[in-house]
Amino acid sequence: MTQNPSVQPFKRDMFSDFDFEDPEFNERFDEVLNEMAAKCPVAHSQTGHGYKVINTYKDVKKAAQDWRTFSSAKGYAVNRPEGTPTILPEESDPPYHDKWRKALNPFFSPTTVAGFEDQIRTIANELIDNFETKGSCNFVRDFSAHLPGMVFFRCVMGVPEADLPELFEGIDKGTFGPVEERPQYFMKVNDYLSEYLEMRSKEAPRGDVVDIVNAGVTREDGEPAPWEDKVAIVLDLVFGGLATTTHAMTAAVNYLAQHEDVRKELCDNPGLIPQAVEEFVRLFAPVVAPARYVTQDTTLGDLELREGDWIALNYAAVSRDPATTEDPTTLDIHRKGVVHTAFGMGPHRCLGSHLARLELKVTLEEFLRRIPNFHITEGTSVKTETGQLRTTTSLEITFDVDDEAKG
Q: 92 exposed, middle or buried (CB, 10 Å; 0-12, 13-18, 19+)?
């Protein structure tokens, strides 16, 4: 089940003494995942209450689909910091989870999301306009930290865009800041959204997702969903809308900045971009490993689990499982039938997956169309933060500026 630590290439024993918060996991993320996917079906952690990290496609799929045994109701985070506000429907189980998903799904369906494409393209070009003639940019600061939130606020929620930086900071520090400080940042976002929901409840309906949340659903006992659950729904939507797509698009641009041949091929043949997006999210998944709480004694593969145990479903490693993907550590934009779990599995599969795919497609189409030649700025390197989620905080790139753009 575990490998002798002496033959692991890491300072920490990543198989029997794993810790999501260890800086080495962030610094050597791909190496750790590749080792787990190839050699370690289950990693063990002694941190906090302890947990097991499940690393095979077969076992992760089984646990993700069996919500009765592997519950989400106690939270997506192992060793959850006290005072962290709840996010719904992520941190709930059916049937209550399913009621909310049924209410929300129409706003994130393929048909609905397809109608956002022109607005997404407009936003992408607005952002590129701000730096195209400068010859360089920090892709996170100047583009990817803004586009997902702008799209979400314009197309889905109607929250004032002027408040985006404050909310983005709250989500970022609530996810990747010092562990003991995370709850206070999440709570700031929670309180802002509570005020926004209350304000909207007093306005005429706009026909958007906020109206649906305010209308609510009923709980299992037939009682209306309480106010705090409605706020938790919007918090989850904002969390997903702001925190995840930023990393996927930044990681894709970081890869293309270092692989001129792939970048040129996508420039010459934009029709390959949708397929390339699947490979990018397979290897650059922002959701690393959400937690599940074990509700009864059970087995998962060869692992015996007891009621009260915690596991983490390592979606990021599973997308590299050699049992499902040939040459899984290689990014191949021509790969057919890409198997990945970047958007999860089971009832908690990502609500916004169609929107994320479209944002990534449009970003690559517009960025490569307007800035086809770029590279990592000399003397800099990409900066990331990693726990049970992963994000990129800085990516400085330099690019050619043609005469037309200068003019």
A: buried
How far, rounded to the nearest angstrom, does the alpha carbon of residue 234 sit from its chain's CA centroid? 16
Specify the DSSP element, H or E, that contains 375: strand 374-376
Which residues are CB-neighbours of 315 under 8 A, at least 6 positions away?
60, 285, 287, 288, 289, 290, 341, 342, 344, 345
What's the rounded Cα separation, in Å, for the pair 165 and 251? 21
pLDDT at 406 (0 to 100): 45
Q: What is the largest CA-CA distance in the chain?
A: 69
SS3 for 91? coil
Give the CA angle between residues 184, 157, 96 to the nearest 5°: 70
Residues of the chain scoring pLDDT < 70 = 1-8, 402-407
Burial of 358 (0-12, 13-18, 19+ CB in 10 A): buried
Q: What is the pTM of this model?
A: 0.92
* CA dist., res. 50 & res. 353, Å (int): 31
Interatomic CA distance for residues 33 and 316, integer angstroms: 7
Q: Are strands 70-71 and 383-386 parallel, antiparallel or unpaired?
A: unpaired
Judge whether 212 and 103 are in contact, CB under 8 Å.
Answer: yes
Those residues whose C-beta lies under 8 Å from the C-beta of residue 257, and which sit 6 or more positions away, are 263, 374, 375, 376, 395, 397
Q: What is the pLDDT of residue 251?
A: 97
Is 50 within 8 Å of 313 (Cβ atoms)?
Answer: no
Residues 6 or more apart from 388 whose CB is under 8 A from it? 20, 76, 77, 78, 287, 288, 289, 290, 291, 312
CA distances (Å), 187 to each of 85, 210, 231, 232, in order? 6, 19, 11, 11
- pLDDT recorded at residue 164: 84
42-45 vs 51-54, strand pairing mode: antiparallel
How far apart are alpha carbons 342 and 102 in whole angstroms?
Answer: 22
What pLDDT is stored for residue 2 in this prediction? 44
Helix (H, G, I), strand (E, B) or coil at 51: strand
Whole-number Å distance between alpha carbons of 221 and 172:
36
Q: Are strands 51-54 and 310-313 parallel, antiparallel or unpaired?
A: parallel
Written as one string, the DSSP assignment of 161-196 is GGGHHHHHHHHHHHHHS-GGGHHHHHHHHHHHHHHH
Give me the pLDDT at residue 7, please: 59
